[in-house]
Design brief:
Low-confidence stretches: none
CATH topology of the largest domain: Quinone Oxidoreductase, Chain A, domain 1
CATH superfamily of the largest domain: Medium-chain alcohol dehydrogenases, catalytic domain
Bound molecules: zinc ion
Structural class: alpha/beta
Number of strands: 18
Number of domains: 2
Number of helices: 12
CATH class of the largest domain: Alpha Beta
Helix content: 25-40%
Largest sheet: 7 strands, mixed
Distance between the termini: 14 Å
Length: 350
């Protein structure tokens, strides 16, 4: 490699990613340069590849990553060279009506490292001053590995979903879908003493994982009557809260039937752009069901997730299924595409 250059996976347009040698980003006096240890592959990276999530090209994607601080701008204080960190990738503006309401996760002017700015599928990533000002550089506790830290962002997003579910003691919580997020929801919901966690998932392997991660009951919606089982498990009431971790509108319509009167339905998964759902508004009206979403999260939640990981309140066994070098990004993306494993990470130095 030429002096001053690094390896990166560059998005060149839909269906066109390329591993290239590109200049190491120049860190100004207000910025920080991070040497990336590992970067997680997200469903969104796949949507960028497929062209269903539009971003400008060329761009280095990857919004889930861990590393060490390699360079600190002269005007930046509060960080040390060599410090192990993860970065909350979404930068909020601080002045829009959402930010003023304290809901920085839905900031109307948000930009994200890995979408609008170059991200972590590279050996180095530059953190702009706005991200530093937002407190987005989050130190990694000593007892949390670099690999797990690289997937702390999706766990953090899942954590926000748990907060949106407003779980209370003895609630019955239904998690629809046991992909990575559904499994994180299963784990994170253990922080609340619920009466039951029920996971609805068609793939047997994932149902097994959900059971090992704390699900009390798993349902195969292809062969079992999920609604009937959930009603049977709740004396006919329905679940207190249902979170939908599958981006399929029909699954969302079905999930509404699992919710009790006065219960809550949280749409965690993004759906294809332009999706429509067909529901009888009377269900919402007469049952007073609260229907809400969960989008993104915050750096403070990421720090909280690190505390939960560090205290062992959430386990990490089985969470990372494979690690690939940058050159094998296709394999990593295909695992995601084919719903294999939980999380896949990339080692840009391998
Ligand atoms: Zn992600
Ligand atoms: Zn804002």
């Amino acid at each position: 490699m030429k002096e001053g250059y690094m390896k990166a996976l560059v998005f060149q347009g839909a269906k066109n990613f390329e591993v290239k040698e590109v200049p190491i980003p120049i860190c100004t006096e207000e910025e920080i340069l991070i040497k990336v240890h590992f970067a997680g592959v997200c469903g969104t990276d796949n949507r960028i590849y497929q062209g269903t999530k539009h971003i400008e090209a060329p761009r280095i994607t990857g919004h889930e990553f861990s590393g060490v601080i390699a360079q600190i701008g002269a005007k930046v204080t509060g960080y040390q060279l060599g410090q192990r960190v993860s970065v909350y990738p979404m930068i909020h503006c601080g002045h829009c009506h959402c930010c003023r309401d304290g809901r920085t996760n839905i900031c109307t002017n948000r930009i994200t490292i890995g979408y609008e700015l170059d991200g972590g599928f590279a050996q180095y990533v530059k953190i702009p001053k706005e991200a530093i000002a937002c407190g987005n550089i989050v130190p990694i506790p000593d007892d949390v590995s670099d690999e797990i830290a690289a997937i702390s962002e999706p766990i953090t997003a899942a954590y926000h979903g748990i907060i949106q579910a407003k779980l209370r003691k003895q609630d019955v919580f239904v998690i629809v879908g046991a992909g990575p997020i559904g499994l994180f929801h299963t784990q994170l919901s253990k922080c609340v003493p619920l009466s039951k966690r029920i996971v609805v998932e068609p793939i047997e392997e994932k149902r097994k994982m959900a059971l090992s991660m704390g699900a009390d009951i798993v349902i195969n919606p292809m062969t079992e009557d999920a609604k009937k089982i959930i009603l049977d498990q709740t004396d006919g009431r329905g679940a207190d809260a249902v979170i939908v971790d599958v981006g399929v509108p029909a699954v969302l319509e079905q999930s509404l039937e699992y919710v009790k009167k006065g219960g809550r339905l949280i749409i965690f998964a993004g759906m294809p752009v332009g999706s429509k759902i067909n529901i009888d508004p009377n269900i919402i009206h007469y049952k007073e069901i609260v229907l809400t979403g969960s989008s993104s999260s915050s750096a403070s939640h990421q720090a909280e997730v690190f505390r939960l990981l560090s205290s062992g309140k959430i386990g990490t066994e089985g969470m990372i299924s494979a690690c690939f070098p940058l050159e094998e990004w296709r394999k990593a993306f295909e695992m995601k595409n084919n719903y294999i494993g939980v999380k896949t990470i990339i080692d840009p130095w391998a």
